[in-house]
């Protein structure tokens, strides 16, 4: 079960697709974060979702929230994926220890070895304001992100 609103968001330090460390603690007191887990780079549904999220960046910017997308893929695979799609989002690698951050958020599928499609809107105070997930093989609708962003205001 994914973490629910009211829970303190677990801290993380993950490399992005360029190898730069991204820490939740660096955003605390500065701005809210939307953390979206995706199962795998280059998969059909994840690729469609990533394109939609990249196109929706103005929606996140207008809410003052930083969007971070995480998967269990290596930073190298995430960079190739971002480059191929031409997206400017920060893609975080939860590769090693494999899925540790997804596990902390209750979003890791232990049997399959990947993160489920779960999203978390985290206030600048580090508290989860909204969380939701999509069934296997289904993309999360942008309307769910709009609702999550509204919970941050």
Can you tell me about this structure?
Helices cover 29% and strands 24% of the residues. The chain is an alpha/beta fold and 153 residues long. It has a single domain (37-152), classed as Glutaredoxin. A hairpin with a 5-residue loop joins strand 8 and strand 9 (128-133). The longest helix is centred in the first third of the chain and has 12 residues, at 44-55. The chain is globular.
Q: What distinguishing features does this structure have?
A:
153 residues, alpha/beta, Glutaredoxin, 5-stranded mixed sheet, two-stranded antiparallel sheet, 5 helices, 9 strands, 29% helix, 24% strand
List the helices and strands and how they pair.
Layout: E1 13-15, E2 21-23, E3 33-37, H1 44-55, H2 57-62, E4 66-71, H3 75-85, E5 90-93, H4 100-104, E6 108-109, E7 114-115, E8 118-122, E9 128-133, H5 142-152
Parallel strand pairs: 3-4, 4-5
Antiparallel strand pairs: 1-2, 3-8, 6-7, 8-9
């Amino acid at each position: 079960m994914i973490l629910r609103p009211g829970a303190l968001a677990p801290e993380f330090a993950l490399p992005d697709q360029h190898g730069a460390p991204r820490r939740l603690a660096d955003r605390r007191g500065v701005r809210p974060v939307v953390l979206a887990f995706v199962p795998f780079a280059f998969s059909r549904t994840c690729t469609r979702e990533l394109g939609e999220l990249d196109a929706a960046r103005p929606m996140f910017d207008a809410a003052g929230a930083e969007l971070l997308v995480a998967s269990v893929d290596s930073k190298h695979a995430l960079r190739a994926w971002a480059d191929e799609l031409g997206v400017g989002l920060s893609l975080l690698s939860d590769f090693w220890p494999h899925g540790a951050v997804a596990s902390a958020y209750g979003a890791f599928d232990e049997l399959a070895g990947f993160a489920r499609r779960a999203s978390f809107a985290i206030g600048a105070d580090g508290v989860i304001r909204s969380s939701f997930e999509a069934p296997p093989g289904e993309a999360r609708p942008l309307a769910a992100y709009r609702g999550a962003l509204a919970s941050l205001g």
